[in-house]
User: Which sequence fits this backbone?
């Protein structure tokens, strides 16, 4: 296997709008820490793929498609490219079609991102060299489920008994001289340790800095999990979530970074096997918006812009982009163009227990929150409100869980290891 990697800073100047929090009412005022992009080119047995990771909230699906086409036209050996966002809420808006309360994207900045990807793609291809492949798994536990039932409703508060994914997976690429060239590290938690009006890569960036300081010369690439209902365990004396600043970002990043570095002593050799596949799954929406929220919606500042966004999507059928990227006989990534609830990642690991499965959200776009069927019945932010911010005409229906699981089963490659039905 051969791997090449390149990176660059992508922090915008102050004055452009940020993404992730609807409460923001002014542009960015400065920078706490730099946003970065990493590009890796992987080549094995005649197959070449590209992976882009970046400190952005998500990638616009149409933008990703255009950049992918340009890249693949220039490098005809390239089989496919994944764009994987960290989902930091401390970066600029990078997608069109979102509610303006989440920030408006800058065309100039999106063009800068495009040029950066293509420049780094050339650098990574020129950097290709032989590597050996390793992996390890450990744990980190600062993520907590954010769906608590109170007074008959689901509210956004810490729920210690709720599902979460503490697994940390590290994939290492080691040169033939024994030095580390690059790492992937994967964890499942919203990067919302920080709030405010300063750019920050949040805990993934702090973890990356910790790793790269501990292993000089190696480039670390963060892969976000199915974190739709998981956020950092930053809880005040009332039992409510709070957002912090640089101190909280550094503390959580240090916890994750230390675990990644510790796992380097437990790395196991992997047998390279490179394959990439993808397809789209149509997802149904509910026929009407949830009745309990309608009066509140119509009286809120959310409603006018959402109504216009929804009108433009009359007759539109949302499609989830599902992908499978296999890097070794055991390590397999599944990519989703959405904010996936944590149960999808846990289900994937149960389904393929003999593999090291890495579920990755926010790949090649972001449709919105995709929840298990029981969440649709329970309600809560992910079901009853989030669709407004994504400009969806209505929430997703409870049928999406079965369709997603059957879509995963339809991808070529791994066979079901638990002898379950595809939708179980």
Assistant:
């Amino acid at each position: 296997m051969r791997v090449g990697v390149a990176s660059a800073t992508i922090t915008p100047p102050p004055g452009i709008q940020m993404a992730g929090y609807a409460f923001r009412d002014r542009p960015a005022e400065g920078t706490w820490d730099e946003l970065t992009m990493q590009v890796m080119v992987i080549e094995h047995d005649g197959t070449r793929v590209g992976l882009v990771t970046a400190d952005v909230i998500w990638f616009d699906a149409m933008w990703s498609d255009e950049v992918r086409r340009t890249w693949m036209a220039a490098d005809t050996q390239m089989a496919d490219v994944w764009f994987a966002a960290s989902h930091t809420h401390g970066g600029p808006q990078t997608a069109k079609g979102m509610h303006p309360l989440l920030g408006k994207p800058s065309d100039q900045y999106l063009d800068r991102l495009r040029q950066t990807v293509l420049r780094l793609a050339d650098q990574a291809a020129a950097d290709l060299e032989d590597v050996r492949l390793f992996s390890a798994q450990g744990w980190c536990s600062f993520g907590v489920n954010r769906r608590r039932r109170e007074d008959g409703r689901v509210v956004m508060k810490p729920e210690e008994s709720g599902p979460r994914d503490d697994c940390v997976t590290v994939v290492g690429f080691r040169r033939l001289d024994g030095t580390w060239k690059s790492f992937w590290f994967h964890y499942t938690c919203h990067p919302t340790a920080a709030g405010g009006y300063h750019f920050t890569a949040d805990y993934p960036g702090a973890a990356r800095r910790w790793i790269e300081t501990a292993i000089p010369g190696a480039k670390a690439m963060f892969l976000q999990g199915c974190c739709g209902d998981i956020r950092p365990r930053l809880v005040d004396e009332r039992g409510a979530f709070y957002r912090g600043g640089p101190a909280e970002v550094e503390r959580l990043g240090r916890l994750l970074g230390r675990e990644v570095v510790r796992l380097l002593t437990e790395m196991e050799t992997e047998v390279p096997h490179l394959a990439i596949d993808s397809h789209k799954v149509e997802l149904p929406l509910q026929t009407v918006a949830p009745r309990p929220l309608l009066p509140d919606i119509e009286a809120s500042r959310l409603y006018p812009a959402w109504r216009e966004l929804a009108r433009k999507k009359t007759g539109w059928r949302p499609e989830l982009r599902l992908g499978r990227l296999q890097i070794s006989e055991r390590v397999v990534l599944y990519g989703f163009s959405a904010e996936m609830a944590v149960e999808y990642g846990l289900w994937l690991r149960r389904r393929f227990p003999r593999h090291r499965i890495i579920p990755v959200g926010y790949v090649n776009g972001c449709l919105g929150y995709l929840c298990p069927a029981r969440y649709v019945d329970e309600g809560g932010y992910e079901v009853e409100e989030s669709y407004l911010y994504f400009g969806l005409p209505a929430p997703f229906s409870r049928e999406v869980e079965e369709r997603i699981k059957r879509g995963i089963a339809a991808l070529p490659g791994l066979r079901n290891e638990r002898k379950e039905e595809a939708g179980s």
Confidence is low (pLDDT under 50) at residues 419-424. The chain has one domain: 1-416.
